[in-house]
């Protein structure tokens, strides 16, 4: 009988020790993990990449107090901070004044119009390094302040009715343009933008006609950098899927 009582007491002591160890182990484990465990890694900021964009630019402006249509291409990069865009644009126009008319008057009243015998024509080409500051930015909308300083050549001719050139002026000019631009991005790869501003010719050589005036433009923007990253990601995913399928077939 005494033997059974001693065995029972021994079993009770063992059970008590096991329960006590089970209750104190989590606290010890948690304390050890807090004191000696590896620290949690700090969150990694997303990598900012340079964004490339090509814009097909159409501008309506005034040259020599006449409306002109200017076409060009602007290629730019969006810096990693996403606030500054640097670019280079090339523009040209060819203004044909062949539709000009002169009016005949009789007794102070205009009677009819006839085509002018002199035909002026203006050719204009210029390049503009440019910078834009983006002060408002959302995933689908950007508002920026563009500034452009360029260098261009002009060619102005006047031809008479017999086809002879009576005037031939070539000149160098330096335009400065500033304005306000709004970019809307309804799609990931393509956006549309419009801007309005003023152009000032700060230097003119051998040509005295006025290139100053308001302009407004509309653009089709193609985000080449986004397209390239998406295509590369698609190719990587496709290659991974192919390798995974081959590995499964091997098993």
State the gist of this model.
By secondary structure, the protein is α+β, with helices and mostly antiparallel strands.
Describe the structure.
The chain has 251 residues and is α+β, with helices and mostly antiparallel strands. Helices cover 25% and strands 54% of the residues. It contains two helices and eleven strands. The strands form two sheets. Strands 1, 2, 3, 6, 7, 8, 9, 10 and 11 form a nine-stranded antiparallel sheet that branches. It starts with a helix and ends with a helix.
Question: Any chance you could write out the topology, listing elements then pairs?
Answer:
Blueprint: H1 2-36, E1 51-63, E2 66-78, E3 84-96, E4 101-106, E5 109-115, E6 119-138, E7 141-149, E8 151-159, E9 165-184, E10 190-205, E11 213-222, H2 224-250
Antiparallel strand pairs: 1-2, 1-11, 2-3, 3-6, 4-5, 6-7, 6-8, 7-9, 8-9, 9-10, 10-11
Distinctive features:
alpha+beta; 9-stranded antiparallel β-sheet; 25% helix; two-stranded antiparallel sheet; 251 residues; single chain; 11 strands
Element string (H = helix, E = strand): HEEEEEEEEEEEH
Task: State the shape.
Answer: elongated
DSSP helix count? 2
Q: How many individual β-strands?
A: 11
Mean pLDDT: 77
Gyration radius, rounded: 37 Å
Query: Which class do the helix and strand fractions yield?
Result: alpha+beta
Q: Which range best describes the helical content: under 10%, 10-25%, 25-40%, 40-55%, 55-70% or over 70%?
A: 10-25%
User: How many strands, what sense, and barrel or not for the largest sheet?
Assistant: 9 strands, antiparallel
Query: How far do the termini sit from each other?
Result: 66 Å
Unreliable stretches? 21-37
How much strand content do the residues show?
over 45%
